[in-house]
Amino acid sequence: MPSSLTKSIPPGSWILVTGASGFLASHVCLQFLKRGFKVRATVRDPTQSPWLLEGTFKQYASTGAIELVSVPPLGVNGAYDSAIKGVSAVVHTAYVTNIVPDPNEVITPTVAGVRSILNAAMREPSVKEVIFTSSALAASPLTQGIDNGAIGRDSWNDAVLEAAWAPPPYGMAHAMANCPASKVAAEKKVWSFVENHHGLHFNVNVVSPAGLTGEPLSKKHVEGPANWVVHAYRGNKAVMDSMPASIYGDVKDVALIHVAAVLDLEVKNARLQSWGHSSHWNEILSILRRLRPGKEFVDDYPDLHHLKVLADQTESVELLKRWSDQPGKQEWISLEESILGSINSRFLDE
User: Fold this and answer.
1) Span 245-269, mean pLDDT?
2) Contact 52, 68 (CB under 8 A)
3) CB–CB of 272/206 below 8 Å?
4) Residue 30: which domain range?
5) Which of 33, 81, 287, 343 could link 60 by a cystine bridge, Cβ 3.0 to 4.6 Å?
6) Could you read off the pLDDT of 93-152 as tens digits, one per residue?
């Protein structure tokens, strides 16, 4: 990170990162730590996430620069009132990951978590920046085989919200809709809060990734259902068949955009579509064969096409260029480099 850039908060400030044991959130924590900030990392059960104080994080834990705090479930009123004390910025990545049919068990607590952390920020004068992690699926269904159109500031995937809240009995169609629907509902809650509370003492930005690839920091990130590269590496056709094409960004780039959204004085009330590269399985399989020539992979799919969708990522790429600690960075980490980061992990059993 260029030292000449003026930051919204000084190094040494405390950053609250919710859902810190997640793939993206753990990289957000690490990037703040590398830049001289302190991280209060919220998890449901610290005994299940000791790796956030070990390995790569050990040097920071030894100086007290990162601490783990337990918080109640998202839907509990006042869940973050204690954790937010004294922090300068909040990065809210936590959401309900359970794939269950009842939307009341996914959408309702996710929205309640947004309400809880924003209300906590209202009561904590030290907070200057709040970042919410949304999803590309909040703006577009990313449907295969149709023209999804151009994504703008006011684009919303309302269809998935309607599908999730369709009347019971609740079945698997609800279960698959609930996670993206929760992102739609939660992000809308963020912006309605901003509109209804004038003169906030903190700035709010939203970062919206699509699929994530890259280096896992924990074994759980390799085995997670959203590790797309690992599914291709292992030939998990049950997952691959359901999603022949998608959009992928390296987790380090997306984490950096979160950091920049906190620190950059020019980024205010931004909705940052941070998707990365459009791709499909045949391109990913081709890269895997090149990187691992001695390994057999599943056959190519017939007649694959990229998703038809257009999103303006200019602001996100500009933040990468401005805040990267790599001189001359001009664009997203390449898909090949990101895939290499995924499969070179010591956590992947080859």
Assistant:
1) 98
2) yes
3) yes
4) 14-213+251-275+313-332
5) 33
6) 999 988 999 999 999 999 999 999 999 999 999 999 999 999 999 999 999 999 999 999
What is the spatial distance between Cα 46 and Cα 43, in angstroms, rounded to a whole number? 6
Q: Are 275 and 136 in contact (CB under 8 A)?
A: yes
- What pLDDT does residue 223 have? 87
- What CATH number is given to the structural domain containing 269? 3.40.50.720
| Separation of alpha carbons 239 and 221, rounded Å | 16
Contact assessment for residue 113 and residue 78, using Cβ atoms and an 8 Å cutoff: no
Query: What domain count does the chain have?
Result: 1
pLDDT digits over 219-252, tens only? 999 987 778 999 999 999 999 999 999 999 999 9
**Residue 16 C-alpha from the chain's centroid:** 15
Amino acid in the structure at residue 319:
L
The answer to whether 244 and 281 are in contact (CB under 8 A) is: yes
The model's pTM is: 0.97
